[in-house]
Amino acid sequence: MTSEQMQELFETSDRVVGEVPLGFHRYLHDEIDWRDRLICIMGARGTGKTTLMRQRIREAFGTGSDKAIYMSLDDFWFSQYSVKDAVDYLYSHGYTHVFIDEIHHFGKEWQWLVKNLYDQFPSMNFVYSGSSMLKLESGKADLSRRQAVYRLRGLSFREYLSFEKILDHRAVTLEELLADHRRLASSIVAKTKILPHFERYQRIGFYPFYAESHAQYQDRLLATVRKVLESDYPSIEDVSQETIRTTKKMLKVLAASTPQSPNMSELYRELGTERNQGLKMLTALERAGLLALVPRKKNKLGNLSRPEKIYCDNTNLMYALIPHVDAGVRRETYFFNQVRKVGEVCFSGIGDFEVDGKFVFEVGGKGKGFEQIKDVPHSYVVNDDTEVGIGSKIPLWLFGFLY
User: Fold this and answer.
1) Sheet holding 38-42: strands in order across?
2) Taking the complete model, does pTM exceed 0.85, yes or no?
3) CA distance linking residue 48 with residue 36, whole number of Å
4) Are the C-beta atoms of residues 403 and 157 closer than 8 Å to each other?
5) Where in the sequence is the domain holding 368, given as residue range(s)?
6) Which of 35, 160, 182, 256 is such that its CA lies 20 to 30 A from the CA of 70?
């Protein structure tokens, strides 16, 4: 590999790193221990993994660095030259950090590539990511002894407010929120009218790319869903076009179903599939960041067991997939999506959710009371359309400040 052959790769890296904005950082930026030699950044399509990697290079090494480089394997450059030869050149010229994006474009043997780079260049640090979370999930176990894995979720409501330059506020712990929610909420609503922002966030605001295409956001989100189902899913499973069509139908049916405790046998009959295939579809949709499966307490979904509740992963997906969104399902979807980042959330059987085996939450509208959970210790009512709560009644929007 010659310097002339590498020049295009260097120019691309310098350009995209130099142009990346630094004014806003995702929560994961400060959670990653960048000293690890092999780091995997996972996350659904559109959550901001590429921006995170480029920001790290610009801030830690500067633009035009001779120590760190960003490379994306969907670049045409890699149709002519090999990743291994590029890294060989970088190693011999004193580079110490290689950030590899779109790793899944290497093909089915991408895990082999990562393992060999890690083993053959022991003085170098590698950070990699890719848009196909299904592929990264499928290969995670093979590299588990070598790598540190981080998962980047979509924007929290707190991050959305900061991204929009409406309000900057630190993340709070669940315990702090439960103990001091009235003061927290009062301090926030004193600075901005929170409910209109909350309503917009639930429609447009979970995926950072909304800022690039406000008017076409839902169309772009649907295109992302199609990419997952038509490209990512077949790349890890031997599935037919008929199975892909059935999986699309399953996603639409579940997005529109109310309540979210489906009769699974009835669902499989409606889809024309059998139980094991149906559960595989559900698991794939969850791993791809399209569905959220809520287990009963102590029940793990890895053994293809039946989920207790099923939601879209986030409310933005709901609004993109179906014409009429049920308010009750929207509230529960938002709560589960935000809280599962910081705690183990299970189906309660008494209220709507149990968190960390201790706290019980009943989620409802502004007038929701304690009738269902009045004798349950550590129980809380979560109210929509409410700016500030009182006692054990907490406004729904505030759970978006957990990360």
Assistant:
1) 68-72, 97-101, 125-129, 38-42, 148-151
2) yes
3) 21
4) no
5) 160-401
6) 160
Give the model confidence (pLDDT) of 141-170 as tens digits.
Answer: 568 788 999 999 999 999 999 999 999 999
Amino acid letter, residue 101: D
Query: In terms of domains, do 227 and 265 share one?
Result: yes
CATH number of the domain enclosing 121:
3.40.50.300
Tokens of 115: 């393992």
CA 257, distance to chain mean position in Å, is 23
**What is the distance between the alpha carbons of residues 384 and 395, in angstroms, rounded to a whole number?**
6
Q: What is the pLDDT of residue 236?
A: 79
Alpha-carbon separation of residue 356 from 45, 123, 298 (angstroms): 28, 40, 11
Query: Which residue is listed with tokens 């209220």?
Result: 351
- Nearest partner of 99 among 144, 131, 69, 135, judged by Cα: 69
pLDDT digits (tens, 9 = 90+) for 4-51: 999 999 999 999 999 999 999 999 999 999 999 999 999 999 999 999
43 sits in the region (left: phi over 0; alpha: psi -120 to 50; else beta) called left
Instruction: Say which residue the tokens 């979904």 belong to.
Output: 301
